[in-house]
Fold this protein.
Amino acid sequence: MGKVFNMHFILTSVLTVAGMMTSVYVFSSLFGKRIHLWLMRNFYKDRKLFSKKNRRTVKLWRAYGLKGVAFLTPVLFTPIGGTIVATSFGEGRNRIFKYMLISAIFWGLFFSYISSRFDINKILGNF
């Protein structure tokens, strides 16, 4: 959107980071635990405690932890999904916010730089 509206690369990056961090704040502070409990009650009622999927999730969390989830959040999980995953593993709000901020700055700069290098008119044509 920054390219379409002819925004500067830095402004686009700042707005991208602000958008992600707004989601992280709202879902880690206000709704994270409630959404996790709601999901567990409604979708995972008859879930086995020691299933292959659970073991794999725990193994990944132990290997990469919050840093890995934060790094992959913009690419794989979305800010809401990554925050709920981190909250469900019992991470504190301050740690979630810190690592998500670092991730948001990195990915915000990366995606803004990449998008600023493409000519959107050539990609979309005369839309």
